[in-house]
Q: What sequence folds into this?
């Protein structure tokens, strides 16, 4: 079985979540989650305990490995919930950071990394992209600094 990582919104996201075969990972942001739930979850949800809803049950792989929020990054996988806090960085160009994050997820998942390493790798790739003026380029000489600055906690 091939693993699918999905970064989409609206009807496409809803259809993927309702399909019989689920993606390995989906990367919705808070606005997209609110659209799916047809209600507004407060931004503070990213700083409090993990939400439980029909979209995010305490069952295996409800959302793949990560949900992205503006304030905090959350990951849900196999009934476990995680929060990732990323270091402040000098952002130069955020264009392509979402794609870089997905690439980090893909790399870590393909390597068989544990959940914390998957979140740390993906978030590092997104941050390093934002630090480079050229879209899709990562400031790799800052990898260790940023990677080690990502703090993942299980909730």
A:
């Amino acid at each position: 079985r091939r693993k699918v990582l999905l970064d989409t919104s609206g009807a496409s996201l809803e259809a993927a979540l309702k399909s019989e075969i689920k993606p390995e990972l989906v990367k919705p942001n808070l606005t997209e989650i609110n659209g799916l739930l047809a209600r507004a979850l407060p931004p503070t949800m990213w700083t409090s305990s993990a939400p439980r809803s029909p979209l995010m049950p305490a069952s295996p792989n409800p959302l793949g490995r990560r949900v992205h929020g503006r304030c905090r990054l959350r990951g849900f996988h196999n009934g476990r919930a995680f929060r990732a806090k990323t270091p402040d960085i000098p952002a130069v160009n955020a264009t392509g950071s979402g794609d870089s994050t997905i690439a980090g997820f893909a790399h870590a998942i393909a390597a068989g990394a544990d959940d914390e390493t998957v979140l740390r790798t993906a978030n590092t790739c997104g941050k390093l992209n934002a630090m480079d003026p050229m879209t899709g380029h990562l400031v790799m000489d800052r990898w260790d600094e940023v990677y080690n600055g990502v703090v993942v906690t299980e909730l």
The beta strands are 5-6, 25-26, 67-68, 73-77, 80-85, 151-154. The first strand starts at residue 5 and ends at 6. Confidence is low (pLDDT under 50) at residues 46-71.
